Amino acid sequence: MYVPAGYREERPGPLVVLLHGAGEDARDGLAQLREHADAAGLLLLALTSRGPTWDVVVGRGRYGPDVTALDAALERVFSSYAVDPGRIAIGGYSDGASYALSLGLTNGDLFTHVLAFSPGFMAPARREGEPCIFVSHGKQDGWLPIDLCSRRLVPDLERMGYEVRYREFEGGHVVPPEVGREAVEWLDAPDLQR
Questions:
Q1: CA nearest 136: which of 4, 3, 22, 33?
Q2: For the whole prediction, is pTM greater than 0.90?
């Protein structure tokens, strides 16, 4: 958990749940947005998957211990910090982005925003609510090729009626600093607050 320097209990702050890529851990998830957290007043919660990656990825669409851990972590955060219910985001990179899309669409009544940096797929158990979605992907991504992933996912999301901000960039399977900054600015936009 990262609490920004300017956090005040009397002023609820936005919460971003961060999910790492395969073979990484919570520290990698925090590194994605931590540099922007203080300026934007973001509370950051980063979890580490129970296995080498998130349960829906290895379980072929089945949820398990990672969802249980996330539920427990969110319960602790909500009981310890003042969170703005209009700005609760879930986001991730690579496998974490796929998991964020899946959980964000499944729990769109909780998550108002979804940040997906280089996602591979989505496997929501159902669709709830109408979260706003930010997707970014590198045009030269050799790990999760853009044509097979985001260029298919984004039109599907738009056809389902979701508001999507899509950002392609020159580069590979990374989250460039300017893309992280753009995602935080997007999250902080007044017209996207619910």
A1: 33
A2: yes
